[in-house]
Amino acid sequence: MKLHLAVFSITCCVCVTSSPVPPRPDQVELLLAFKNEFPSRSCDPIWNTLDVVNHSPNISSWTKEGVSFDGVVFDNATGAVTELNLGGACISGTIQANSSLFRFQHLRYLRLFINHFDSSPLPSGFGRLTSLEYLDLSQNGFIGEVPSSISNLSRLTFLDLSRNKLTGRFPHVHNLTLLSSIDLSYNHFSGTIPSNLFTTMPSLWYLDLRQNNLKDPLENMTSSPTSKLVHLDMSKNLFSSRILEPISKLPNLTHLDLSFQNTTTYTINFDFLPFKSLEYMDLSGNSVSALYTSSKNLSFLILSSCNLTEFPTFIKTSRNLEVLDVSKNRLKGEVPEWLWKLPSLSHANLSHNSFNGSPKVLLNSSLSELDLSSNTFHGSFPIIPHTIKVMAASNNNFSGGIPLTLCQASQLRLLDLSHNSFSGSIHRCLTNVSVLKLRNNDLTGRLPDIDSRILVILDVGHNQISGKLPRSLVNCTSLKFLNVERNRISDAFPFWLNALAQLEVIVLRSNRFHGPISSPGISLSFTALSIMDISLNNFNGSLPPDYFANLSEPLVNSPPVKRWPEYRGDWHYYKYPTEPWYYPSIYLRSKGRNMELEKIPDRCAVIEFSGNSFGGQIPESIGFLKSLIVLDLSNNGFTGRIPSSLAKLTQLESLDLSRNQLSGRIPQEIRVLTFLSYTNMSHNRLTGQIPQGTQIGGQPKSSFEGNIDLCGLPLEETCFRETTTTGAPSTQQTHEPELRKQEEVLDWKAAALGYGPGVLFGVAIGQAFATYKPALFYKLFRL
């Protein structure tokens, strides 16, 4: 494998004493050898320094001069390396079995987390580092089984192998009696856990096994009443209720997570959990029949998706309870009034149940975050405490005006009242928040002046708001998401929005906006824009040839591929320390369908200009928008030829040019668009052969119907013409040399362009697109 080292910063730190021993030359030579296993960039100062050492005629004399590198610790008494800190060093490749790393016999601390050893096995050589006390190999992409040699590390107290791709049975670590912390989470371990797991490591206080495929032990599991285990996370595995008995005998547990056991739908009886010190308990995703714990210290209780039908009354006396999550259950009726009187309760999630009535939240409640969304609450909105910071109540039946008492919550930062029946106007005092979602109500009047510098998301779509966009929005310097779709706003195109440097999404869809979207002397250029939906308005005029050239940097430059999918909103509120709280959503027209994106991928790039009165040619500069996933220019009056520069949009998945007045041939170049899963060019004036790419050939006939003289698949009309009676060659024969020449050019262009790593949904999805499933785009975006 070809290795690549972006940044590999090794540093030698010599602790100063009265007479410290300098680094041993043999240890420096090992560092040099390890460095040479991974080719470095010249800009890396550590490699430059080591290169100086390497070219020194006498390494021993050089080391006496002293070194000053971060990341390596030498023993003051012996000069041997005792600590290596290489976390996040961007090392790429494979650690070989004979690596110099395994010759540091005095090494006690090794931090090698967050590097790039993807698809590389975990070397058995780690078992030769018998002086190790601390080993962190997390987030490296290691595959395969953990070698049995790991059991040689008898001095080990800390082990972290989390967030790799390790497989096989539970590692041979239960005989390492000095271990105090083990993290094996987010791997693919399977089989049973050792029956003596809780008894052979008397110093163990932290154990994290979540997100694996581990099962109950074959024999009865034992536990010790003297166990020091405090933190136990066994979530997202295959454990059954058998695991409860040994766990219940762990007297010092403060953190217990047994959520989402992917076994059959059995019901777990937690009738009594004798944990007197328990502070955090998560049983989500399990069917719970009964629950009680005697702990007076319980502060986090998470019971989401537990099939609960009755509110857990034992928490009535839980005076230390801070966080309660009973979302996604079958709870109904009114919320018990005693809940609002719990003195320490700050976060309550009651969403996705069948609670009804009008909840009465006392003003002296200590709540700071409350989620009532997706229930059947009705009537007037409750009075909320002044301490509230997050208020979510979407998808209910609340009615009447939005109460002015919300304005008294001076710390309010997120207000989501979407999908209710609120009426009246929007008060200006409500806009001094970071997130304001009022979509799908019956709100009327004009938008108030909004100049909040903390406003990030503004969504008032699907109401009856009229007037113009308030120019004060230009002062909302943190605004990232603006959605006013499906209202009655009558205004010209808001060129002034390009002053908002953080604006990523503009949705003006289905209003009464009018006039041109270009103007002489005005260069429309956004800093962060990646979604622009101005469809179903009355915009008109033509677009200048360079209109798209500088429209937005994220649209022009393809973003780098990220290891994990990310969504807009990740940067904002969090429900709990490990769970995202809030995502903006939009309605999007793609593949001829209207759909709702409940979560918007960071790499979702959209230009949606359909349903207006644009004319003239489609600018060739459209080819600059290399990040585009969706392009919809349908239902306009565009004329002229389809620009061949569309072939540069190599990430494009949906293209709709239907119902215009486009003429000429369809550019053969677009057949290189391997991710193009939906194309519609119907009802134009197009002629000639349809490009015969894999994706295009899989489209329905309706995608090309209503043109003048198109031929080739998927249409039934063949492009073959018989020789005429005058002996003239057929149209197909006339163009064959030209087509062959064009194919050669296209092959060269395809090689030059490449398909690039980093298509939004990956190669596997691209292959799935070849079968053409109209609803696939919708499902993908809802992942």
In short:
With 783 residues, the protein is mainly beta. Helix 1 crosses helix 2 (45-54).
Could you give the topology of this structure?
Elements: E1 12-14, H1 25-36, H2 45-54, H3 59-63, E2 72-74, E3 81-85, E4 109-111, E5 120-121, E6 134-136, E7 142-145, E8 158-160, E9 165-167, E10 181-183, E11 190-192, E12 206-208, E13 213-215, E14 231-233, H4 244-247, E15 255-257, E16 267-273, E17 280-282, E18 287-293, E19 300-302, E20 323-325, E21 332-333, E22 347-349, E23 354-357, E24 369-371, E25 376-379, E26 390-392, E27 397-401, E28 414-416, E29 421-424, E30 435-437, E31 442-443, E32 457-459, E33 466-467, E34 481-483, E35 488-489, E36 505-507, E37 514-515, E38 531-533, E39 538-542, H5 553-556, E40 574-576, E41 579-580, E42 586-590, E43 593-597, E44 606-608, E45 613-617, E46 630-632, E47 637-640, E48 654-656, E49 661-665, E50 678-680, E51 685-689, H6 694-697, E52 709-711, H7 731-753, H8 762-769, H9 776-781
Parallel strand pairs: 1-2, 3-4, 4-6, 5-7, 6-8, 7-9, 8-10, 10-12, 11-13, 12-14, 14-15, 15-17, 16-18, 17-19, 19-20, 20-22, 21-23, 22-24, 23-25, 24-26, 25-27, 26-28, 27-29, 28-30, 29-31, 30-32, 32-34, 33-35, 34-36, 36-38, 37-39, 38-44, 39-45, 44-46, 45-47, 46-48, 47-49, 48-50, 49-51, 51-52
Antiparallel strand pairs: 2-3, 40-41, 42-43
Helix pairs in contact: 1-2
